[in-house]
Specification:
Number of strands: 0
Structural class: mainly alpha
Strand content: under 5%
Largest sheet: none
Number of helices: 28
Helix content: over 70%
Length: about 650
């Protein structure tokens, strides 16, 4: 018969707390629930309420444990532990409740770790697990309790305690081999974990017993290998043990044996690569992985690690005074990444990402070796793998291909090949249209290239008119115009004039590109007085188009510069730069009103203000523009002014030059 609930509650509540004892400390009771309930009634009838209370407490503990087990099975250790704590409140030393508390606390810690939860919660759960395992061992010693305590201590970072518990567990197992039944984890694994952890702690602390701990860890891992030869963890930890001991040769041997069984195990390959690199740098890690890949040619993960080490070896050569940058090494790495993703499409995205930076690395090698055309091709080829791949970079390791183009452009600038420099900066601007620097640089170098070509066109035109007297200079112009050696004067003039007009057309084409680039730059940086001024300058001085827009831009520069200078928050160098650009804007407004608006008085005002601003002397104003506008020069203002008026005009040769 079942006890009335009221009587059951009264018996439990009225019991003195200090009298609660674990069930094993009482007289034996039947295992059958109905029999135990009957026995409790008999004890009540006999007036032995203490005995009845112990029986009833045991029944309630069993009920709580069953309820907790259901919560564990549902993946909710936190709910299960709430019920277990109620059981322990009734029977603090009940073995089943202690086991549930220990294993539940461990499960809660592992669940919290997996979820990236609070470190304090994890530590608290592990401490509860360790304490419960130890209490369980004191009540009813078992291999499960000892090994559980060892694992909890290991997770808590207490290798000494973990090893002590594991040793006790192994000794208990030796005396009671039947306790192996029912163990979820090999006790040899737990012992090996603890022994390895104790060795690494001793080694790190340079403890005197480090050598003894090494021997114990080596033996424990060897024993575990006999039980679990197919467990990659054993091979990996053995390799790591020898790595800690700096016996890299033995570590590589063990890891090689492990990879023979598990050629696609990431942990083994990671350790193998690390040890090989420690033993001889990237050159050695590449050689060792080539050996592994040769043995397992169809293992994609092995090729992934080989490809990455080849990449690292190649990258090590960039900017290294002790090695020459070798583009071929990047190409080998790229080829290995291609093989990897073909073996396993799951690696496709990761491999292609590396393939892109391999091509970037190839470009940087070409830059270091002065191979500018090859560098440009390498950077542009990054787009063949992914659209806009040229913009990819490896943070802290490899700059983007766009930056590579900028570096190549700078090399061309150093060689005074401004058209090439401009083309590359323009390409950079196309790939990164939000970056004003690329557009500004393209505008700057296209302008310089156009000016240089226009000067050449003028010299060719002068040669066509017979106005070049320097024999050396004339010879250079003849070579440029490809004047036949036997040409008469008329043919020579015609050849020079034709070359001049072709050159001036190219100069205008470059200057037009300068204008487009500068317009983009000024749109991106409307508050930058220098950039906006230079944009207008291209049209006012050279192209003689977009004049109204240019005037608006220059007037904006005047106002922006005034406002920024009035703020007074710039340092000395920045103030000088701004004043110089601001003065240029005033000067260029003078050119606009003098040359294009036919307003000499307005031009005089702007020129005078530009001369006042400086901050450097402006001789073109004081020596040419001001005297010309005041009527103090009879030569039309001189060459400086004439060159602006006639910039980019075709070469016309007077008839007398043909005689």
């Amino acid at each position: 018969m079942r006890l009335p609930p009221t009587l059951l509650v009264l018996l439990l509540v009225s019991a003195v707390p200090q009298a609660l004892q674990a069930r094993q400390e009482t007289d034996p009771v039947p295992s059958d629930r109905t029999q135990r309930e009957g026995l409790a009634i008999e004890r009540i009838g006999a007036g032995d309420y203490e005995a009845a209370r112990r029986i009833l407490a045991g029944l309630l503990v069993d009920r709580y444990i069953k309820e907790a087990n259901r919560a564990f099975a549902a993946g909710s250790p936190e709910d299960a532990l709430l019920v277990v704590d109620r059981a322990l409140a009734l029977a603090p030393r009940d073995p089943s409740a202690l086991r549930a508390k220990a294993e539940g606390s461990l499960a809660l810690a592992q669940k919290t770790i997996a979820a990236g939860g609070s470190g304090l919660l994890i530590q608290g759960a592990l401490e509860d697990a360790l304490q419960s395992y130890r209490t369980w061992s004191a009540v009813a010693d078992s291999v499960v309790a000892r090994m559980g305590a060892s694992h909890a201590a290991w997770l808590l970072g207490d290798p000494g305690n973990a090893l002590e518990q594991a040793r006790a567990g192994m000794a208990l197992l030796k005396a009671n081999p039947e306790q192996r039944e029912g163990l979820e984890t090999l006790p040899e694994r737990t012992y090996a974990e603890a022994a390895f952890g104790a060795y690494t702690r001793a080694k790190a602390e340079e403890s005197a017993d480090a050598e003894a701990r090494f021997d114990e860890a080596r033996d424990a891992l060897g024993q575990l290998l006999g039980f679990a030869p197919d467990d990659p963890w054993v091979w990996g930890t053995q390799g790591e043990l020898y790595e800690w001991a700096q016996d890299y040769g033995e570590a590589l041997r063990v890891l090689t044996d492990g990879l023979a069984r598990h050629p696609e195990d990431d942990g083994l390959l990671q350790r193998f690569t690390r040890v090989a690199r420690k033993s001889g740098g990237f050159r050695e890690s590449v050689a060792q992985l080539e050996r592994i890949v040769k043995r397992e040619p169809d293992a994609a993960l092995g090729r992934w690690y080989l490809a990455r080490e080849r990449f690292e070896f190649a990258a090590e050569g960039i900017g290294n005074d002790e090695r020459e940058a070798d583009a071929a090494l990047f190409r080998l790495a790229e080829q290995e990444f291609v093989r990897c993703r073909k073996l396993n499409p799951e690696y496709d995205e990761a491999c292609k990402g590396y393939e892109i930076v391999c091509r970037s690395g190839t470009g940087w090698c070409h830059i270091e070796n002065g191979e500018l055309e090859a560098a440009t091709k390498s950077f542009l080829s990054m787009n063949d793998i992914y659209d806009r791949g040229i913009t990819w970079e490896m943070s802290g390791r490899m700059l983007s291909g766009v930056m590579g183009l900028a570096f190549v452009a700078d090399r061309y600038n150093q060689d005074e090949n401004w058209a090439k420099a401009a083309d590359l900066f323009w390409l950079a601007s196309e790939f990164e249209p939000e970056e004003s620097l690329w557009a500004n640089n393209a505008g700057f170098f296209y302008r310089d290239a156009g000016v240089e070509l226009e000067f050449l066109a003028r010299d060719l035109c002068r040669a066509a008119r017979g106005q070049v007297g320097n024999a050396e200079a004339l010879a250079e112009l003849e070579a440029h115009a490809q004047v036949p050696a036997d040409a008469n004067d008329e043919a020579r003039a015609r050849a020079f004039a034709q070359a001049s007009n072709v050159t001036v057309q190219e100069a205008r084409r470059l200057m037009e590109k300068s204008g487009v680039a500068y317009l983009r730059a000024s749109e991106l940086t409307p508050e930058d007085v220098r950039v906006v001024n230079d944009t207008a300058l291209v049209f006012v001085y050279y192209l003689h188009t977009n004049l109204e827009l240019s005037k608006e831009l220059l007037l904006r520069c005047v106002e922006t510069g005034r406002r920024q200078l009035a703020a007074g928050d710039l340092d000395e160098d920045a103030t000088w730069e701004l004043e110089n650009a601001w003065g240029d804007a005033h000067q260029n407004l003078g050119v606009y009103f003098a040359n294009h608006a036919n307003q000499p008085e307005e031009a005089l005002r702007w020129f005078a203000r530009a001369a006042e601003i400086g901050p450097e002397p402006r001789p073109v104003i004081t020596n040419f523009w001001l005297p010309y506008l005041r009527g103090e020069r009879e030569d039309g203002g001189g060459v400086e002014i004439e060159s602006i008026r006639t910039w980019g005009e075709a070469c016309v040769v007077p008839p007398r030059a043909h005689k």
